[in-house]
Amino acid sequence: MRLIAGRLIAGVLAGILLFSGLSYAADTPTPDQLKKMYDDALVQLKSAQDRKNELAKENEDLKAKTEDLAKDLAASQAQVQDLKRDVADNAGKDFYLRAYHAAWENFLRQYPEVLVKWKMFIQSDIAAASPKTPALLDPRWPQERDDGE
Questions:
Q1: CA-to-CA dists, residue 81 to 73, 77, 84, 93, 127, angstroms
Q2: Model's pTM, two decimal places?
Q3: Where are the domains of the chain?
Q4: Which band of pLDDT confidence, cut at 50, 70 and 90, is reported for residue 145?
């Protein structure tokens, strides 16, 4: 019985080894298949490299755009600071002018005769009432002189 069992095990093992060898040989690719797999891998590698180069170019473009936007932002921030400074300066001037106007109105309430004169002054034609301003520069100067020469 032992002999039969040993032969049976040896036969099963031989069958397993025989079939596994055949299946291993069937899985081995042929040179044409290897060439095709190599060509496919090259195509995939080239495609991956092309995409990598495209992404690198897009990255450079985005970096340049980011730098331009950063410059624009810095210029805008500087302009905002200038405008804030102008607003602060104008706020001081506005306060001064409002206080001056309020003081002027109080003054006019205390002196009604000045208020009447002020209203007449405002309603009058200032340009017509003012005397002719002397000409500081005579446009005819080198050619004609006022002293009759």
A1: 12, 6, 5, 18, 41
A2: 0.43
A3: 31-123
A4: low
